[in-house]
Design goal:
This protein is mainly α and 319 residues long. Among the domains are: 82 residues, no CATH class; 130 residues, Lysozyme, CATH 1.10.530. It has 14 helices and four strands. It has a two-stranded antiparallel sheet. Strands 3-4 form a two-stranded antiparallel ribbon. The longest helix is centred in the N-terminal third of the chain and has 34 residues. It is elongated, with a radius of gyration of 51 Å. The N terminus is likely disordered.
């Protein structure tokens, strides 16, 4: 009995050992297979992937720059950027140079400078190819022969253009009635500026005649109606809408009816401007008037007569 029992135990141990060996071997094989797994794409998909070659840079003629250039994507044609050149015209330069004069003279004639400038461009586009550009006649005003009129200076031509513009566009002119209550200096500066337009007029004589007529630009009634020179009409003292147009009318009168006709001295002007009859019944310039004008001349000869449109504009809100 004992012998048979021992023999059974012997074979049982062998069997258990064999089972352990099988289990051990199986585990080792499985472990080896896990480590050997590949992450490569399956063969069916490998044809869609381009294998990148590996280069030995030291043993080849290739450089990093060469490799980089091989991997560059060829760019398409570069889009050309066209910058449109802005061409300034003579009219642009004219407006830039004389903008203050355009503004102030537009204000004088009670029109908008923006309307005038817009008309300048229209006329420039219409007439430039035929007549070119003349800054003294920016309005392309023609004489009876169909040629451009030639004016004495730029501002003179601008005044004539404004008159022409108003004649063709009467609705653009607005009524600006202002009773002037300001000081004498502004009026004197208006005379200085307007005589820079009508250059045949002696500035000091114009200042002195106005001073003699208006009590050195202090007679309120005359100032309120814009008449500083004593101009008379059928109904008495001529009334102007504002002081600017009144003074301009005065200087134009001197230019056309006196200096323009050779009457350039105080006695010569006075003979027509303020005549009287002497004891012999002869027409002469009023001695009292001549004395008033000469006295004023002593004052104005000492002053600087240079004035610009920008000085007159001051803080005015002008379009």
């Amino acid at each position: 009995m004992e012998t048979n029992r021992a023999s059974g135990l012997y074979w049982g141990n062998i069997l258990v050992g064999a089972i352990f060996v099988i289990i051990f071997v199986t585990l080792m094989v499985m472990h080896a297979n896990v480590e050997g797994l590949s992450l490569e794409c399956p063969a069916s998909a490998q044809g869609h992937v381009k294998e990148l070659p590996l280069y030995d840079l030291e043993s080849s003629n290739l450089t990093l720059e060469t490799l980089a250039s091989q991997n560059e994507v060829e760019a398409g044609p570069k889009e050309e950027v066209v910058v449109e050149e802005i061409i300034r015209t003579e009219l642009d330069d004219y407006i830039t140079s004389y903008l203050d004069d355009i503004k102030f003279l537009s204000y004088t004639f009670s029109i908008k400078s923006t309307d005038l400038i817009a008309d300048m461009y229209l006329r420039y586009a219409k007439y430039h190819d035929t007549y070119g550009f003349n800054e003294k006649n920016v309005g392309y005003i023609l004489n009876s022969n169909g040629n451009l009129k030639n004016y004495a200076n730029v501002k003179y031509g601008l005044v004539e253009y404004i008159n022409d513009f108003i004649g063709k566009n009467p609705k653009k002119k607005k009524t600006r009635k202002v009773n002037y209550t300001g000081n004498a200096t502004y009026v004197e500066n208006l005379i200085r500026y307007y005589t820079s337009i009508y250059t045949n007029v002696d500035t000091n004589i114009a200042l002195s005649i106005g001073a003699a007529e208006s009590g050195y630009y202090k007679v309120k009634y005359m100032l309120s109606v814009g008449n500083v020179y004593g101009g008379m009409g059928r109904g008495g003292l001529i009334h102007y809408d504002n002081i600017e147009i009144g003074v301009l009318s005065y200087i134009r009168l001197l230019s056309k009816s006196y200096f323009g006709k050779g009457l350039k001295t105080i006695p010569a002007i006075g003979y027509r401007y303020c005549p009287t009859i002497d004891n012999n019944g002869n027409k002469i310039a009023s001695p009292h008037w001549i004395n008033l004008v000469n006295t004023a001349m002593k004052k104005y000869k000492k002053l600087n007569n240079k004035i610009s449109a920008s000085d007159l504009l001051g803080k005015k809100e002008i379009l």
